[in-house]
Amino acid sequence: MRKRSHRSRAVLALVAAAVVGVAGCDAVGGDSAAPSERAEPSPKPSPLWDRSPRSVAAVGDSITRGFDACDVLSDCPEASWATGASPEVDSLAVRLLGRTGAAERSWNYAVTGARMADLPGQVDRAVRRKPQLVTVMVGANDACRATPSAMTPVSEFRADFEDSMRTLRKALPKTQVFVASVPNLKRLWSEGRASPMGKQVWKLGICPSMLGDADALDSTATLRRNTVQKRVEDYNKVLAEVCAEDKRCRSDGGAVYDYRFGTAQLSRWDYFHPSVNGQARLAEIAYRTVTAKRP
């Protein structure tokens, strides 16, 4: 009895070893570790930048309000590059959210004539909506003053933008920010001065530091325009630097400044603000930046 029992236990042990060996090969194969020994994959960290935000709030100046895009000397928010509903523009909000989503979850707090000093107040209103993306386009009016000496100092421009970002971050730590550069005002002067009507409208007070005495080409006028242009470049440097300090902020890398606006992209009433076509180009730039893959 003892011998038979011993043989039975030996056979059972061999069968069990064979079963375990086959199961091991089938499950993990070759020299791979058994399932119990395999390391669990680490969960992927949430990306800092969501390329599909679900709501958009816009802050800024007349460009974001669609000023002179549809009618003379008036806002046209439906043509806004940021939040407008116009199918000809195909705004950033429409591209990201669809038409229904844009109508329900996008808001335009920009104000015609606004300067950087006005941005903290606009941001304070925008954060109440808890948007997932805030767009910023401001600075042209800081350069477009009665004279170059009246332009916003760069230090104040920086301080107000930093204040705006602090207001946003305090209320919404994870909201993303898209920052557009200030357009090339000297190029707008160069393109628009060919229009007699445009120059008449300029005399009403549109960007006098750059557009005043539009046909003057003497050294004084040239120095004035170059001074304004340098200030715009300084503003754009500030916008890029402050944005770079925030991990959830993307600037356009100077794309709006570099865009070669022609007469088709300029308002047919003032030859300075973007036309509907120009607003569509701004929407394209913003959409490319917001949805771009970044390492």
TrEMBL record:
<feature type="region of interest" description="Disordered">
    <location>
        <begin position="30"/>
        <end position="53"/>
    </location>
</feature>
<dbReference type="GO" id="GO:0016787">
    <property type="term" value="F:hydrolase activity"/>
</dbReference>
<keyword id="KW-0378">Hydrolase</keyword>
<dbReference type="InterPro" id="IPR038885">
    <property type="entry name" value="PLB1"/>
</dbReference>
<protein>
    <submittedName>
        <fullName>SGNH/GDSL hydrolase family protein</fullName>
    </submittedName>
</protein>
<keyword id="KW-0732">Signal</keyword>
<feature type="signal peptide">
    <location>
        <begin position="1"/>
        <end position="23"/>
    </location>
</feature>
<dbReference type="Pfam" id="PF00657">
    <property type="entry name" value="Lipase_GDSL"/>
</dbReference>
<dbReference type="InterPro" id="IPR036514">
    <property type="entry name" value="SGNH_hydro_sf"/>
</dbReference>
<dbReference type="InterPro" id="IPR001087">
    <property type="entry name" value="GDSL"/>
</dbReference>
